[in-house]
Amino acid sequence: MNAAVASGNFGLDISTFFPPGTQTALTDIDTVWLGKSSAAEFLARVQTAYDKDKASNLLAPVPEPKS
Amino acid sequence: MTPAVAARRRRSGKFYLMIAPALLLSGVVVLIPGILTAYAAFTDWDGLGLHPAWVGLANFREIFADPVFRHSLRDNLVWTALFLTIPVVIGLLTAMLLLRRRRTRTVYQVIYLIPYVLAPITNAVLWLNIIYNPISGVIGFFRNHGSAIDNPLASTDTALYAVAGVDIWHFWGFLTVVYLAALRQTPLDQVEAALVEGANGWQIFRYVYLPSIRPTLQLMWVMIVIFSFLAFDYVYLLTQGGPANSTEMLSTYAYTAAFSAFQFGKAAAVGLVMSGFGLLSSFLFVWLSRKDPDL
Question: Rounded to whole angstroms, how far apart are CA atoms B165 and B283?
Answer without folding.
Answer: 29
